[in-house]
Amino acid sequence: MENIASFLKTTISILITLAIISSGLFLWGKTQPVVELANSQAAAQARELSEQQYSAFDNQIVSGSQILTAYRRYESQQGFCLYIEKPYANGQNEAERRFSMNPNGEDYCRAFDYSGASFKEGAGSRGVEEEEISNASGRYYISPQARYRAKLIKDKNERIAAIYFVAE
Asked: What secondary structure letter does DSSP report for 14?
């Protein structure tokens, strides 16, 4: 009789342990969609916070002086470029109208398609320095009163990698 009692105790304890494990696994399976939703929302909020610094330039009309402000604001960002398309002026060649600037001080920016406002394959171009856009007698001078439409440019990873300023 003692063997039967110990067998029943062991069997019941095993069944209770299996029931507890099964209910835990059941609850864990039910919470996974909630956890995934929370993770995706947290990632979306983090992206939104990181992109908030660019909101002043998101499809906004800005002045030429704000381009210089953007140049100074994004000096610390690695690989970030500003692409400018100035209004057409008589005798001005395409290289003086369409140019890039790398606020970080690196010489080159990625190749850019000005007509499609997107990155393209190929070698990049040499970036213009701050002095060249602020010197009134320079080839790349941007008038502080000029009006530009700012567009944010994203790379393949959906990360904001540049701002494109096109003359209005």
From this structure: H
- The span from the CA of 107 to the CA of 83, in Å, is 14
d(CA 144, CA 108): 25
Spatial distance between the Cα atoms of 91 and 97, rounded to a whole number of angstroms = 11
The residue behind tokens 């000029």 is 146
Which amino acid does the sequence have at 15? L
Residue 105 DSSP code? S
The helix or strand, by DSSP H or E, that contains position 15, with its residue range, turns out to be helix 2-51
Taking residue 46's Cβ as centre, other Cβ atoms within 10 Å add up to: 10
pLDDT of 22 higher than 70: yes
Structure tokens at 141: 């001078």
Q: What is the tens place of the pLDDT at every residue in 116-133?
A: 888 888 777 777 888 888
SS3 92: coil
Residue 81 dihedral angles phi and psi, to the nearest 5° = -130, 155
C-alpha distances (whole Å) from 101 to each of 30, 31, 47, 64, 138 are 51, 49, 25, 14, 15
CA dihedral of 150, 151, 152, 154, whole degrees rounded to 10: -150
